Amino acid sequence: MAFVEGAARKINTNRRDVTVESGDGTVKTLPYDRLILATGSELRELPIPGLAENSFNIDTYDTAVALDVHLQKIVQTPDIPGHNCFVIVGASMCGIEMAAEMRNRIELHSDAATAQAARVVLLERAEMVGPEFGDGPRPVILDGMGQADVEIMLGTSVTRIDKDTLTLSNGKKILTATAIVTIGLCASSLSVQIPVARDEIGRLPVDDMLRVKDAPGIYATGDIAQAVADERDDGHYALMSCQHGRTMGKYAGYNAARELMDLPPKPYRQTDYTTCLDLGNFGAVFSTGWDRQVQHFGAEAKKRKMWINSELIHPPVGSRAEIFEGSRIHPETGR
User: Fold this and answer.
1) Residue 266 CA to chain centroid, in angstroms?
2) What string of H, E and C letters represents the secondary structure of 148-217?
3) Fewer CB within 10 A of the terminal residue: the chain, N end or C end?
4) In 3D, which of 12, 37, 33, 13 has the Cα closest to residue 215?
5) Do residues 166 and 54 touch, judged by C-beta distance below 8 A?
6) In terms of DSSP H, where are the helices of 208-319?
7) Which residues lie across from 8 on neighbouring strands?
């Protein structure tokens, strides 16, 4: 086994090889017997004039740092138009969590008075906050947004982003120097290089073993895979989340190795779906099942969220035996 640090630039499914470029510009071609694509997701270019030049996101570490550097500067420069207005575009999980924590971040870079005076706006084109969460968690989410003093605009989208102005679909404008976009997630652009039909967000269709359909020798896992997680109730596809990505990765690696050894694979399933949404100082909301039945909210759910972020999603540590034990697959739960 060899570790190669670099960026995959080209996949040739006919020759079964991957072209990799290292940090110093060296390019090499690596052949494969089995290829596992676990390249995640990225933000696609949205048809909004000015978005690339005048908005921020937290899709990568570098863009998150860039946003934080901007926040440090903007809260200290009241002469800049729109310096105290912060608009989050998209009221799904990422947007909700960012809106709930925004005042805390502002205060960290300034003071309580500056954070209190700020205008925080959460913008959503649907007619409800968190449309994917359903009716169960929504009242709790709205309570959290209320406590964080977040202004919510529904049924509204962005048509243009300028340096200090956001233009909305209803013709209104918001004076702001901070527009944060949390929408537009799609599968890694490497998926385009696999000659199969993809879904509307670019994910590769896989079978129950996570083998890419009509692409021999290739497995896909995580955000790049369109995989059935639970076949009950007309079926549920795995979501772009660490919860599904971590588990799918186990199955993809396990099945690719088993196939090379002519051993039977194990179908991927993940029936115990849960959601834990951070709501800032309000706490969090924890729900279970695909219908998202609320189990805990407030401080109790916050403890669970902190455990997930600080321990659960981190790579396993310890001896080889301990790591393998922690990575085992449970057919009943998919964990």
Assistant:
1) 26
2) CCEEEECCCCEEEECCCEEEECCCCEEECCEEEECCCEEECHHHHHCCCCCCCCCCEEECCCCEECCCCC
3) N
4) 13
5) no
6) 242-260, 299-307
7) 20
What is the residue-level pLDDT of the chain in tens, covering all 335 positions?
Answer: 788 899 999 999 999 999 999 988 899 999 999 999 999 999 988 999 999 999 999 999 999 999 999 999 999 999 999 999 999 999 999 999 999 999 999 999 999 999 999 999 999 999 999 988 888 999 999 999 999 999 999 999 999 999 999 999 999 999 999 999 999 999 999 999 999 999 999 999 999 999 999 999 999 999 999 999 999 888 899 999 988 998 999 999 999 999 999 999 999 998 889 999 999 999 999 999 999 999 999 999 999 999 998 888 877 778 888 777 766 676 544 45
Model-wide pTM > 0.85: yes
What strands lie across the sheet with 178-181, from one edge to the other? 150-153, 119-123, 85-89, 178-181
What residues are paired with 170 via a beta bridge? none
